[in-house]
Specification:
There is one protein chain. By secondary structure, this protein is of the alpha/beta class. It has one domain: NADP-dependent oxidoreductase domain (TIM Barrel, Alpha-Beta Barrel). Helices cover 37% and strands 13% of the residues. The protein is built from ten helices and ten strands. The strands form two sheets. It has an eight-stranded parallel β-sheet. A two-stranded antiparallel sheet has the order 1-2. Strand 5, helix 3 and strand 6 form a beta-alpha-beta unit. Helix 3 crosses helix 4. Keywords: NADP, Oxidoreductase. This is Aldo/keto reductase. Belongs to the aldo/keto reductase family. It holds the Pfam family Aldo_ket_red.
């Protein structure tokens, strides 16, 4: 098991860059004051990893929240993603420049291919490799790539993706995909860890919440980290942002980790990477 110490702890990517294993997701956080506040509250309470994307339409607010915080830019791990309509070689280079301008930052720590758009993601990846070689970002990766997408990408890639950000929760563990990523030194990362709120209805989580004296959200986020999976729960509420990060004073037993693994149903709450039309 990878070592989990505190809110500012990191997992090392295969190029040596240290990625904080806990961060703030800002999907559906409204641009402007809502997202600025969320970013600042997170940074004030010790978060050092902020995850946005072009399609979230809040990069400007995220950048403002970062710039106006008291935390030095070099201490914050900032992530964005190239959207599907911008995929392709030249358009990815332009999309990256546009994201950087909206964020008003000099570089990104991690840039991801948001979805495996058929016929385009290889050209997109070539552009990402170029941006990486030009030191415009510290790491590159993908999101929503199944094993066959990764294998296809790796046939021509010069650089192995450093991260694969996937829908990940107890109903969608996909241990085979995690194992494949681990075998290639691709860091696995979770989105939608709360199953769009459905996690709060599960008896197994209610029981574990009682057993450990922790909230259901804290139980699932701790499970993510003990699985070696980076996690970025989203919230725009100050109390929730602070509570989500209060997961470093307990540890799930190996039996309880296995219990949660055993809930896997291959059930998605988001789009299917093999069948999406956007």
């Amino acid at each position: 098991m990878k070592e989990i110490t505190d809110l500012q702890g990191t997992f090392a990517l295969h190029n040596g860059v240290k990625m904080p294993y806990f961060g703030l997701g800002v999907y559906l956080s409204e641009d402007g004051q809502e997202v600025i506040n969320a970013v600042q509250w997170a940074l004030e309470s010790g978060y050092r990893h902020i995850d946005t994307a072009a399609i979230y339409n809040n990069e400007e607010g995220v950048g403002k929240g970062i710039r106006e915080s008291t935390v030095a830019r070099k201490d914050i791990f900032v992530v964005s993603k190239v959207w599907n309509t911008d995929q392709g070689y030249d358009s990815t280079l332009r999309a990256f420049d546009d994201s950087l301008k909206r964020l008003n930052l000099d570089y990104l720590d991690l840039y991801l291919v948001h979805w495996p758009v058929n016929g385009k993601y290889k050209d997109t990846w070539r552009a990402m490799e170029r941006l990486y070689k030009e030191k415009k970002l510290r790491a590159i990766g993908v999101s929503n790539f199944m094993q066959h997408h990764l294998e296809d990408l790796l046939e021509n890639a010069e650089i192995v993706p450093m991260v694969n950000q996937m829908e990940f929760h107890p109903f969608l563990v996909q241990q085979d995909l995690i194992d494949f990523c681990n075998s290639k030194n691709i860091q696995y990362e979770a989105w939608s860890p709360m199953m769009q709120g459905k996690i709060f209805d599960l008896d197994e989580f209610k029981a574990l919440s009682k057993k450990y004296g922790k909230s259901i959200a804290q139980i699932v986020l701790r499970w993510d980290l003990q699985k070696g999976v980076v996690t970025i729960p989203k919230s725009s509420k100050k109390e929730r942002i602070i509570a989500n990060a209060d997961i470093f004073d307990f540890e799930l037993s190996s039996d309880d980790v296995a219990l949660l693994d055993g809930l896997h149903k291959d059930k998605r709450f988001g789009p299917d990477p093999d069948n999406f039309d956007f």
